[in-house]
Amino acid sequence: MGNIAALAWKELRSYFVSPIAYIVIGLFALLYGYFYVAILAAFIRNSMQLAQFDMGPSTMNVNQQLIRPLVQNITVMMLFLGPMITMRTYSEEKRSGTIELLLTSPLTDFQIIMGKFLGAFALWVIMLAVTLPHILLLFYFGSPEWLPIATAYAGLLLLGACFISLGLFISSLTSNQIVAGISTFAVFLFLWIITWIGTVTGPTGMALTSYLSINEHLDDFGKGVIDTTHLIYYFSFIAFSLFLTAKSVDSERWRG
Question: With a threshold of 0.85, does the pTM exceed it?
Answer without folding.
Answer: yes
